[in-house]
Specification:
Chain A: Its main location: membrane. The complex is a heterodimer of chains A (301) and B (368). Chain A is an all-alpha fold and 301 residues long. Chain A has helices at 2-32, 39-60, 69-91, 100-122, 149-171, 173-183, 185-190, 195-217, 227-242, 247-267, 270-287, and strands at 138-140, 146-148. The relative contact order of chain A is 0.20. Chain B has helices at 6-28, 31-56, 64-83, 90-94, 110-134, 139-159, 161-164, 184-210, 212-230, 234-260, 270-283, 289-308, 313-327, 331-362, and strands at residues 175-176, 179-180.
Chain lengths: 301, 368
């Protein structure tokens, strides 16, 4: 029983990380149909921000204050990634709307530059981030089953982010105009929504989410310039499986991939698990080509 | 040969110049540079295939590294067996595999290996292409799925070390059909074989692009729904072009392994797969010949820059991706064609202007 619970917990834990990464993609991909290959590098930016804040706290502040650095890092990671995302949208992405394949190539170029930049600044080897003390240890459920606080924290963080995005998208004026642009750009523009501003904001929001994801990833292991590439394809698969345009689809996609991956990893091997999961996704798309949850639209592409 | 459009004429001239340059290269280049050029030209075969599916059909495949790799591995498996005296590759005995796995046995024959090097990529492309295109999975989604194919294949190849050589890949080849691969004369011969392959692929691609069969994919690229409404089945055309393109990637893999002497999962991963797209973008989409030019120029630049400043190349390549997609979406050949057209139009405009003036003068006499 506890083994099953542990498996389930591991699955949900993996799902939460995938979801955190895919959340930003769901916004940029769903809203603007931009394939942002540099999304992984925003994760990297968030991770390095955490590394830097940690260093600052270690150097400048008394040891007693160290425990709080992570809260600040989350904020800084979000803000810096969002700011760079906003800048990227203003300088590059907005010239590529309606050319999704070109956006893929251009952002891939951006990702190469950002990776090399990180390598130049921080060096090629991975760096480790020390987790604050209050995240060490775990919650003991039974003798064999301990749930690490770090993973629980990430799950809580994801729930917080999803709730925040949900509230923003469905219960604020800005979020509603974002939805309107998503559903019918032309009509939204006719009704007086500044689609340009919505796009920039959406892209910044998506990048900021990636920054938070990067911050969370520092809890799980060392970080390096190519940290983003490990997750980017998985994150895209989450979005493709979930279906573009609805938050709930992304959640379902992440849960499905996360739980299945850990289950197959336990029964077969890590290699085969990846192969099986991706094969299942392609098989699933035979049945529902547009993903789990789709937005109804009468537009003919 | 009919030369109706200016584009065809430009392409013909460019092809002839290229052919002359390629044939002269052995006299001008050192042995090392020549073998580099030979590899680039092997890549050019792949790039032309990629151009058929991306430039002409509008489907961006980020998985061509896999087709290239599958072709290369098929060839390499034969070479490896030929270089293993007791019939069992060395890495297998290291990993504790004692008997040749069943899927290695066909590769004992060179003919079968060459055939499979083209067939395996085509079959994989057919399965993936049919399953996705049939369901009308759209452009960006297909690109992501093709990337998933790369992940699957690379993980499999790295993970199954005993059967595939793992991260190290396959290397230490000796002979092919009794020819010593390290021999300079054999290398020169392989270079000429590669040129022949490039030439044949070029002819095939240009023929495809100008034939009726090749017009439908262009229509699919520009307005797939209209093609469907007219009564064509876009799926068949898309799958066909995708398979041709995968087969060409397989051939490129064969030529690459014969010249380079190694294939590893790193050469079929996500990064090389996307780099391949850059070659086509730089040369010029939907121009065929641009794929050759783009491949050779990009690879030459990469070699030069990474020899001198290894940490500088990623910046430059990143900038190339951005600049080419933003400012030169037509690539080198497309931009040249545009300039040529403009120049020609400028020449003809003077006569046109005179004509229109004459028309304007005659207008008042028309009844109002």
């Amino acid at each position: 029983m506890s083994l099953l619970l542990l498996q389930l917990f591991n699955g949900i834990s993996l799902s939460s990380i995938l979801l955190l990464i895919a959340l930003g993609l769901a916004i940029t991909f769903g809203l603007m149909n931009v394939i942002n290959m540099a999304h992984g590098e925003f994760i990297m930016i968030g991770a390095y921000m955490t590394y830097m804040i940690q260093g600052l706290f270690q150097k400048m502040l008394p040891a007693s204050a160290f425990g709080y650095y992570f809260a600040l890092s989350l904020l800084v990671a979000f803000l810096v990634a969002a700011a760079i995302g906003w800048l990227l949208e203003k300088t590059l992405i907005r010239f590529l709307y309606g050319r999704p394949l070109d956006s893929l190539l251009a952002t891939w170029g951006v990702s190469l530059v950002l990776q090399q930049l990180a390598r130049t600044i921080f060096g090629a080897p991975n760096v480790a981030v020390k987790a604050p003390e209050w995240l060490e240890g775990g919650l003991a459920i039974t003798a064999e089953l301990t749930l690490p606080y770090k993973r629980l924290f990430i799950i809580a963080l994801v729930i917080f982010c999803i709730t925040a995005i949900y509230l923003y998208l469905y219960h604020t004026r800005g979020g509603r105009s974002m939805q309107a642009v998503m559903q019918n750009r032309g009509m939204a523009a006719c009704l007086g929504i500044s689609t340009g501003r919505v796009d920039a904001l959406g892209f910044a929001l998506g990048s900021g989410m990636a920054g938070i994801a990067g911050c969370a990833l520092t809890l799980l292991g060392p970080i390096g310039p190519s940290i983003g590439t490990y997750y980017i394809v998985d994150a895209f698969m989450v979005v493709v499986l979930g279906g573009v345009g609805k938050l709930i689809g992304t959640v379902a996609g992440a849960l499905g991939i996360g739980v299945l991956s850990t289950a197959f990893e336990y029964t077969t091997s890590a290699t085969l698990a990846k192969v099986i999961v991706f094969t299942l996704i392609i098989a699933f798309l035979q049945w529902r080509p547009a993903g789990l949850v789709t937005m109804k639209s009468r537009a003919l592409d | 040969m009919m030369l109706q459009s200016s584009g065809t004429k430009t392409k013909l001239i460019l092809s002839l110049v290229l052919l002359a340059l390629m044939l002269l290269a052995p006299m001008l280049l050192s042995e090392f540079r020549l073998s580099l050029l030979g590899k680039f030209l092997a890549f050019a075969v792949l790039a032309m295939g990629l151009d058929l599916i991306w430039g002409y059909t509008g489907i961006l495949s980020l998985g061509h590294g896999v087709y290239f790799g599958l072709g290369a591995y098929c060839m390499a498996m034969h070479l490896k067996l030929a270089a293993s005296p007791d019939g069992l590759p060395d890495f297998m005995s290291w990993s504790g595999v004692e008997q040749l796995p069943w899927f290695w046995t066909p590769f004992q024959s060179a003919g079968a290996a060459l055939l499979l090097a083209v067939l395996v990529p085509v079959i994989v492309a057919f399965v993936l292409g049919y399953l996705t295109f049939r369901n009308r999975i759209r452009g960006t989604f297909f690109s992501i799925l093709s990337q998933a194919l790369v992940i699957i294949t690379v993980t499999l190849f790295v993970g199954q070390q005993g059967y595939t050589g793992g991260t190290n890949g396959l290397t230490n080849f000796d002979t092919f059909l009794g020819l010593k691969l390290g021999d300079p004369s054999v290398k020169l011969m392989l270079y000429y074989v590669t040129i022949a392959a490039v030439g044949l692929t070029l002819l095939l691609s240009l023929w495809l692009a100008s034939s009726r069969l090749g017009k439908i994919p262009v229509a699919v690229r520009d307005a797939e729904n209209r093609v469907r409404f007219i009564g064509y089945n876009p799926v068949a055309y898309k799958v066909f072009i995708y398979c041709v393109s995968a087969g060409l990637a397989g051939i490129a893999g064969i030529l690459f392994v014969l010249q380079e002497g190694i294939i590893s999962p790193a050469q079929m991963g996500i990064v090389p797969s996307i780099e391949m797209v850059l070659w086509v973008a730089i040369g010029g989409r939907a121009t065929v010949i641009g794929a050759i030019i783009g491949t050779v120029i990009t690879n030459a630049a990469k070699t030069t820059f990474s020899e001198a400043y290894p940490e500088f190349w990623p910046f430059l390549m990143g900038a190339l991706f951005v600049v080419v997609t933003l400012f030169f979406p037509k690539g080198i050949v497309g931009t040249l064609q545009e300039l040529a057209d403009k120049w020609r139009a400028g020449r003809t405009r003077s006569t046109q202007v005179l004509g229109s003036k004459a028309l304007a003068y005659s207008e008042p006499s028309k009844p109002q």
